[in-house]
């Protein structure tokens, strides 16, 4: 990457854009809501069950001017979801500033592994064991979404729930490939521990992105 482009990326004036699309939010609190998704490349958290591993290597995704990303988003929806990869790998200040300036509500889906940047209307924290969230993300998360891959993840979920703020909504979501095995266990767990809610990847049931 050329030095001048790298400097713009470091400032958040360009971002490694993997893809952008208008669809229905399939998970968590806003499931069923139309939203414009911006998927930013780059992630070193390394979940073995990640369903977008092609997002991991930032260099594979072209640095795109932040103003171009915002111009595309504003044409479709006033709700914009920034996801990855791990979007907090990059400085989100400029992206959210520009989105706010055109009247968009800013949502982020993050592992929380990096410092929180940007101005967000909604923070979905999905923590991973390999690289735990920063305290600022715990403190500001609106929803906690823990992916349940095996029974050990229930303990991890409770550990993470003890670290978020009191108003954070708690979700357990089965990892897609293990859903048939884990959904009955999640249902039983949530019924026994009703502070939790069940989240499903409804967009996959709807066969949409």
Automatic annotation (TrEMBL):
InterPro entries: 7-CO-7-deazaguanine_synth-like, Aldolase_TIM, rSAM, rSAM_sf. It holds the Pfam family Radical_SAM. Substrate binds at residues 24-26, 39, 83, 209. Binds 1 S-adenosyl-L-methionine per subunit. Gene3D superfamilies: Aldolase class I (3.20.20.70). Its EC number is 4.3.99.3. Keywords: 4Fe-4S, Iron, Iron-sulfur, Lyase, Magnesium, Metal-binding, Queuosine biosynthesis, S-adenosyl-L-methionine. Pathway: Purine metabolism; 7-cyano-7-deazaguanine biosynthesis. It catalyses: 6-carboxy-5,6,7,8-tetrahydropterin + H(+) = 7-carboxy-7-carbaguanine + NH4(+). Its cofactor is S-adenosyl-L-methionine; Mg(2+); [4Fe-4S] cluster. Catalyzes the complex heterocyclic radical-mediated conversion of 6-carboxy-5,6,7,8-tetrahydropterin (CPH4) to 7-carboxy-7-deazaguanine (CDG), a step common to the biosynthetic pathways of all 7-deazapurine-containing compounds. This is 7-carboxy-7-deazaguanine synthase. It comes from Mesoflavibacter profundi. The lineage of its organism: Bacteria, Pseudomonadati, Bacteroidota, Flavobacteriia, Flavobacteriales.
């Amino acid at each position: 990457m050329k030095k001048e482009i790298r400097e713009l990326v470091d400032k958040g004036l360009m971002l490694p854009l993997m893809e952008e699309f208008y669809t229905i939010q399939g998970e968590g609190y806003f499931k069923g809501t139309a939203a414009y998704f911006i998927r930013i490349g780059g992630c070193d958290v390394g979940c073995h069950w990640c369903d977008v591993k092609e997002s991991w290597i930032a260099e594979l995704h072209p640095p795109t001017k932040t103003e171009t990303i915002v111009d595309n988003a504003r044409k479709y929806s006033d709700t914009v979801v920034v996801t990855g990869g791990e979007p907090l790998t990059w400085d989100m200040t400029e992206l959210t500033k520009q989105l706010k300036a055109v009247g968009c509500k800013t949502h982020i889906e993050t592992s929380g592994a990096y410092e929180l940047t940007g101005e967000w209307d909604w923070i979905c924290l999905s923590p991973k064991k390999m690289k735990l969230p920063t305290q600022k993300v715990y403190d500001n998360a609106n929803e906690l979404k823990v992916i349940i891959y095996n029974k050990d993840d229930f303990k991890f979920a409770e550990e993470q729930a003890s670290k978020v703020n009191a108003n954070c909504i708690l979700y357990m979501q089965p990892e897609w490939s293990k859903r048939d095995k884990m959904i009955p266990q999640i249902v039983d767990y949530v019924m026994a521990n009703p502070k939790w809610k069940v989240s499903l990847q409804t967009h996959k049931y709807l066969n949409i992105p």
